[in-house]
Write a structure and sequence with these properties.
Blueprint: H1 3-17, E1 18-19, E2 25-26, E3 55-63, E4 73-84, E5 87-98, E6 101-117, E7 120-135, H2 147-150, E8 155-167, E9 171-178, E10 181-184, E11 189-190, E12 198-208, E13 219-229, E14 233-243, E15 247-254, E16 258-266, E17 271-279, E18 289-299, H3 327-330, H4 337-378, H5 384-510, H6 523-561, H7 568-638, E19 660-664, E20 672-680, H8 683-695, E21 702-706, E22 711-719, H9 722-730, E23 742-747
Parallel strand pairs: 19-23
Antiparallel strand pairs: 1-2, 3-4, 3-18, 4-5, 5-6, 6-7, 7-8, 8-9, 8-10, 9-12, 10-11, 12-13, 13-14, 14-15, 15-16, 16-17, 17-18, 20-22, 20-23, 21-22
Amino acid sequence: MNKNLLYIVLFFCFSQQFYSQEDGVVAFALPVRNSLKFNKYVINPTFSFVREQNKYISISNKREWVQFDNAPQTYLFSYAGRFAENAGAGVGLFQQNYGVLTTFGGVINFAYNAVLDGDKNLTFGMNMAFYKSGINSGGVITNFPDPSLENIPSNSLLTVNPGINYGTDFFDFGISLNNLVSYNIKTNKMVEDNPEQSVQGHIMYTGYVNSRGFFDQSKFSGLVRSEFKKSNTVISGIMMISIPKGMWAQAGYNSLYGLSGGIGFNISNQIALEYNYEKAIGDLSTFGSSHEVTLAYKFKKPYKYNYGDDEDEGALITPSRKSNRSVASKKGSGKSDTEFRANRIAKAKLVADAKAKTDEEAKTNLVTDAQVKVAEEAGVTLTAEEKAKADEEVRIKLAAEEAKAKADEEVRIKLAAAEAQAKADEEARNKLAAAEAQAKADEETRIKLEAEEAQAMEKVEDSVISSKENINELTEEYKRIEILLTRLKETVTDKEKDLKDLKEENDLSEQGIYLEPKPFKSVSAENAALESLKLEIDNVISNQNEKIIQLENLYSERLESVPNMTDSINVFYKNTIEDLKSEQSQAVSSREKLISTLEDINVATEIERKRRIKRAGYDNEQDRYMKDRAALNEIKQNTLQSTVPLKEEDFDFGEEQSNIQIVKDVKNVESGYYLVLAVHTDVNKRDDFVTKTVSSGQSDINFFYDVNSSKYFIYYEKFDDIVSANKALQSKGNEPYNSKMSIVKIEN
């Protein structure tokens, strides 16, 4: 990515978050826009209460436009949720980094709900944030003061963000006033012309999805909102579907930041993990992608609040529960179902027999009573014998009727048996046909499985070949990273030696022992080479991680086809992956240790450099100046003009200079514009150039010393203005010592 594009990205970030008045401030704007599960109270302060049941502790990290170094990054630690039947609250700590700018602070939230009528709710909420913004000095790497950074002050700000929400059974409508009040505590003034000040409106739907199977009882949530700012209007929307198994997925669109998508799942009943991805589109399409990761812990309670949609959710890890399947079988006498049905049939038969006997006795009594009544009406009194005869006739008649009923029952039973046999034969025929169909289906399945197995084995072989290629590539990559780490170690060793020499020079100087100072190396060139080496190491490590992941995926695919853990190839892959991970871990550890050592050396070197500069400025400046004047006078007095014309290649011009540069605080030299011929840090090379210039006929040669850079600037003309200096530079002629001439401005 070229430098111009990086500048565009940084300008865009700063223009969104940083705006300059007499004393610049940073607007309060946390990039929480891609989740309907956690930290919703930042979107609208009422959302700590609306549709919530529990309290959460969450840790979030969002990295925007990760393809750029020092791209925007936000950390948010939050504790928020439903605390009572009519109240919600939250507290959060955040830090935002934008290149060399940083913001750190906290936000407090409170929401109160009033039940209007039945399922109608009116919720009021407020977010109050206090934060400090300024320069992150640890992220600034420069050898000279940068006025553009020094002019950015540190500020402490207080902002108020109120909101309101009206909720029904499934819908919520509301507005919030972002950055309604922004107060700069440092200047004791209200902040005006805040670009992040806006009026935000939203519509949210929450309800169940009409589905079955895996998605049964799934919930759907959708949020559409608009932010009306002074400079532009941002339209966004996000939707989420939650599955009772403890998983959810999200997708969204933002007219400014682009498309987003994310997934989440409950690791346990209380621990959840969520990831969101954002892809810039439109004018920001070149900025790339952003990533957001949230880890949350849920505090569960034994009861449910009204106006909340959090039902019981599943998780990947659930506690074991005792089964109640055996309870029914343990009740009663412990007999089998067949015995129970037999007892029930027997009891029913006994009841039927008792009823038949009762009916028979009733009929007998009715007949006897009827005969007695007829006889009494006829005026005849029946004797005991006659009465017994009548009873016998009735008994015989009843017996005949009973026999006939018994015969009819036997016929009915035979017919029922015949029907049952026919039904059984039909069932047997159907079972036989079903068995034949099942056998046919089994044969087709076997053929299909054999084909799939053959295909799977072919795939396994392909994965074997691919994995071997990855292993070979990783082996070569490890050889490469060993070379790179060796180079980095050598760099650390060289810098340690330079630090040791510089410290020895300073220590001896403090003891009165003077050594010729060694020249400062080009810090910018060293840093550029070092950053290039670090980037190359990081790229190799990143590529190794990707290839190890690919190898693990191939290993998992093989395990699905060949699940035997003792298989020789599987064992080889497992051991190889473990060895590669171990080597990767060692490489990362070595890199981190070397970088840490290098950072310590840089800090110590900077301290010693300042000691040297201070020592040179206060102890040796006048001595050096007198020695330099004496050396210049001696060269001018003792150097004869050369009889052979010198050429450009005969001169050592030292460090290559830009067309014009500025040097400050130079002792024994007046301010102005100097035509510089050469720049040297070595005294011998300085004297050699001056000698050759004098021998070429230029006797007005001179030089001055810059203690801040330990450099000698050789010149022969000085001007009071840039116009005269530029004219002289244009008319420098073709003298060999003028070929690298440049302008140096001295500001004292």
